[in-house]
Amino acid sequence: MACVSVTVPREAVFETVHTRRAYAPSRPLVTPALRLGDCQNSAEESTALMMKPAQKDGAAFPAVSPPKIRKHRKGERFFDFIPCRHIFVLMGFLGLLNVYSLRVNLSVALVAMVKSVDSGDKNHNHSECFYGYANGTDTYANNTEQKPDTGEFEWDSYTQGIILGSFFYGYVITQLPGGRIAEVLGARWMFGLGVFLTAVLTLVIPIASRAHYGALIAIRVIQGLGEGVTYPAMHSMLAQWSPKFERSTATALVHAGAHVGAMAALTFSGFLSASSFLGGWPAVFYVFGFLGCVWFVFWMFLVYDSPEEHPRITQEEYDYIIINQGDEKVQKNLKIPWKPIAMSKGLWALSLAHFGSNWIYYTFLTIIPSYLATILLYDIKKNGLISSLPYLLTTITSCLASVYADVLRKKGIMSTTTIRKLFNTSAAVVPALLLIGMPMAGCDRVWSVALLSLAGAALGVREVGFMVTHIDMSPDFAGTLLGITNTIGNLPGFLMPYVAGVLTSEENSIRTWSYFYYIAAAVGIICAAAFLFFGTAELQPWGKGSDAEQPASLGEKEKPSKEDEKIESSRL
């Protein structure tokens, strides 16, 4: 018997099966062809089957196959034939690339900006590591790798620590309000403007630096305020755009932009600082600031807050995203259950995991370039290249781990909580142990670089550890939850440079640096243990808003009544 394609109005399905309110009445839900006569399921049963989400983690596959990239059709715009969620992931990747390149470029540029050798800063006058200088002494004479007095500014280690940490003074302030505003008013503008503001301010850093280091600190604080909203806003959008079994992959791919951004900033900042292009180190800020402004234009044109609001999304992709989110479909303008959130043991464990992981991550981001320059005596170009190597490996391992994690979930091999704890523990313990080995490597450059690279590779799997758990616990409040944990998680941003400055202010040696590495390792392991014992990646009771507004999954809290079934049958 012939097979008939049936179009079911979206409001009918969502009102009777998924929730009591229509999400997008103007966009009907197109189900696959329903066979009449020779098919086993009736139209009503097939519709219910389509709308029924996976019951438990890994217990069922997605209800609808993902739409594929099709051939470009004549008359279409270039991006129209690419799935919109893929465009979102790409632009999110480039967005976080800009976020981190704008944040990190100062770490390398500062080495070229400051008179770090023979400048009166006693902790920089001597290094116990020497590499065959031409005069055979322990001085820098005729050393082609380290030339004194090349910088413009005479800032001591303490001042440099304040400058590097000042970004995070502003960064922690806007985390929580940024997440909530993104959930209520929309994350697209919030994320875009956060990057754009930081990019514009980056362009004026050379002027501010030459005016006074206090002006540079003020610029960095304001940049922190701007970037503080970016991660909560991005998590809010990931909750909107990610089908359940693509969540780990989408999150890791977007977050890979941060690692690539750090790698790009560390690499190209070194080359630009050593060149004569636009005056050397000022070129670092001009180039990255300009690229951030260009990205903003494309972001606003190509990306929208949610599938419902996207004017170019196909019906097929829209259905795939909405149906496969199931009972985790994000709702907007919900009242935040502050008391249950504050009492959540899992959230506090997640916050500690964020704190410990970032302490190790920011060690690579802001401290390692100084160690390579002042202890291992790498020049500015090699410093940037070597500092970027861990981020290259981090990007690779994070992408591979995300695919593996989604396979484990889809096949039901491990629960989501077990997967998150496994990867998070690995991402903390392995880098911590490798950092402890740094003082043991001493002046051996090969071993030092190898340890840093392996630590960066291990750190990459954190993207499918704690980093995606906010969405697992509460898709509706993912932005707010990330705002909370990122506030706590970024305290190391200004605490760590201060600790490093205090430890090395009197004596800049491998011995004093070893204390810093031991502290970083201890913080990372202790915080990972807290998440291992008390963390969770289960959807929380408060995670879907109030009971009155919570969607009911078929076969769980609410089933369609007989009257609803009759209405639906008549519509078919």
UniProtKB/TrEMBL annotation:
Residues 543-572 are annotated as: Disordered. GO terms for biological process: monoatomic anion transport. InterPro entries: MFS, MFS_dom, MFS_Na/Anion_cotransporter, MFS_trans_sf. The lineage of its organism: Eukaryota, Metazoa, Ecdysozoa, Arthropoda, Chelicerata. It comes from the Eukaryota. It is a multi-pass membrane protein. Pfam families: MFS_1. GO terms for molecular function: transmembrane transporter activity. Gene3D superfamilies: MFS general substrate transporter like domains. GO terms for cellular component: plasma membrane. The chain crosses the membrane at residues 78-100, 158-177, 189-207, 252-272, 284-304, 359-378, 390-409, 421-440, 446-465, 477-495, 515-534. Residues 555-572 have a biased composition (Basic and acidic residues). Keywords: Cell membrane, Glycoprotein, Membrane, Transmembrane, Transmembrane helix. Residues 87-539 form the Major facilitator superfamily (MFS) profile domain. It is found in: Cell membrane. Signal peptide: none annotated. This is Major facilitator superfamily (MFS) profile domain-containing protein.
